[in-house]
Design brief:
globular; UDP-n-acetylglucosamine1-carboxyvinyl-transferase, Chain; alpha/beta; binds shikimate-3-phosphate; disordered N terminus; 26% strand
Length: 444
């Protein structure tokens, strides 16, 4: 396994400069919704059928974790998964630690969901996940009576010990994080009384929507969300939309590549996720939204994007949580825009799969762009990208963002350490190649 990791960490993308993105495609399923479909389907009474499931390593890590806890899950096959729910109290202790790979969502949501199960379980992850902050979930869970050990630095492995029971809490979150909110609401399903969370700014609400879809009441009072413990989930069917976070690379690519005209089908348009559209439009992007409809409790639409001359902007801080995963792609848009783009209020980017502020600044500088990191953001001066070699630091979204940068560069861009693209976007190079990105994948 160690040898394999080493080999795959050498996966490299080489992308020839120029070209346009032209075509009509559907990117893979939404990662956040895919994770939650497995979690709620497993705890439900009855059989949950999922379509459009993301067969990427992160969502598959969640799926495997529930199999390890005794849930029968068929598939995935072409995005279809059938989950035979075991009910709220039907999970069994796994034989060993649950390995969640690169997936922060799996670890933080499972920490909440497993805190009140009554068996001991250990959550582990890869090198990147083992560096990410977990106190943001273990501390509020401790207020609810959970017993979870971390390393002295507050990182994984998380050892979750059985306790007599959890009690509800009323927690004001210091960071705008859907993972923390979801973790506490999931723990709240098993707690006595009511569990309330207040978020400092709106974050993605897939947990609340899907809980309601499974028949569980989620209470809402302004910025507070709450659940009452002791209820049940009833199985339902889930149609997972295409992931707007994966579509974002194509929205940026088609905007910066002259002569592009690209349609992206069935994209999730949840208003807590659409910051990338707002920000790109403020920069002058040409994006049309068509066939707005609803699929399984989530808004979806088809997007048509054509090339446009982008301009630098000051990114509104209220858009940060609504576009939190899209900044690597947006920084590439800023590098190709006329003038300066300024981002503030985004310190969270430093604790994602990599330090996305530093890693993007380093890569953009290597490609001849003036990019100045600040403690909570970045200042990017639009200019001419040149060819060169950049390191993604094993971060899927950094790798895909720099692949798109080649569309606007004067020379070839080589990107190291791209294997983790499979965590969120299996088949990225093939799909991007099919609409005009001149990308080849090497394993050297
Ligand atoms: C996610 C929430 C976000 C996001 C992550 C997925 C989720 O993290 O970055 O990719 O599914 O809840 P935070 O809520 O910690 O910002």
């Amino acid at each position: 396994m160690k040898g394999m990791d080493k080999l795959s960490s050498k996966l490299q993308f080489s992308v020839s400069p120029g070209g346009s993105l032209i075509g009509d495609v559907r990117v893979p399923g939404d990662k956040s919704i895919s994770h939650r479909s497995i979690m709620f389907g497993s705890l439900a009474q009855g059989v949950t059928r999922v379509e459009g499931f993301l067969q990427g390593e992160d969502a598959l890590a969640t799926l495997q974790a529930f199999r390890d806890m005794g849930v029968e899950i068929e598939g995935p096959s072409e995005g279809r998964v059938i989950i035979h729910g075991v009910g709220m109290h039907g999970l069994q202790a796994p034989d060993g630690p649950l390995d969640l790979g690169n997936s922060g969502t799996s670890m933080r949501l499972l920490a909440g969901l497993l805190a009140g199960q009554g068996f001991e379980v250990t959550l582990i992850g890869d090198e990147s996940l083992s560096r990410r902050p977990m106190k943001r979930v273990t501390e509020p869970l401790a207020l609810m009576g959970a017993e979870i050990n971390t390393t002295p630095k507050g990182t994984a492995p998380l050892v979750i010990r059985p306790v007599d029971g959890l009690r509800g809490c009323d927690y004001r979150m210091p960071v705008a994080s859907a993972q923390v909110k979801s973790c506490l609401l999931l723990a709240g399903l098993y707690a006595q009384g009511e569990t309330w969370v207040t978020e400092p700014a709106p974050t993605r609400d897939h947990t609340e929507r899907m809980l309601r879809g499974f028949g569980y009441e989620v209470m809402q009072e302004g910025p507070r969300r709450g659940v009452r413990g002791g209820g049940a989930l009833i199985a339902c069917d889930i149609d997972v939309p295409a992931d707007i976070s994966s579509a974002a690379f194509f929205l940026v690519g088609a905007s910066i590549a002259a002569g592009s005209d690209l349609v992206l089908r069935h994209v999730g348009m949840n208003p807590t996720r659409d910051g990338v559209l707002t920000i790109l439009r403020l920069m002058g992007a040409d994006i049309e939204v068509a066939k707005e409809r609803e699929a399984g409790g989530e808004p979806v639409a088809d997007l048509r994007v054509r090339s446009a001359q982008l301009k630098g902007i000051r990114i509104p801080e209220d858009q940060v949580p609504l576009a939190i995963d899209e900044f690597p792609a947006l920084f590439v848009a800023a590098a190709c825009a006329e003038g300066e783009t300024v981002l503030t209020g985004a310190e969270e980017l430093r604790v994602k799969e990599s330090d996305r502020i530093q890693v993007m600044a380093d890569g953009l500088q290597a490609l001849g762009i003036e990019a100045r990191p600040t403690p909570d953001g970045i200042v990017i001066q639009g200019g001419q990208l040149r060819g060169g070699r950049v390191d993604s630091h094993g971060d899927h979204r950094i790798a895909m963002a720099f692949a798109m940068a080649a569309l606007c560069a004067s020379g070839e861009i080589r990107i190291d350490d791209c294997a983790n693209v499979n965590t969120s976007f299996p088949g990225f190079a093939e799909l991007a190649g099919s609409v005009g990105l001149q990308v080849s994948v090497q394993n050297d």
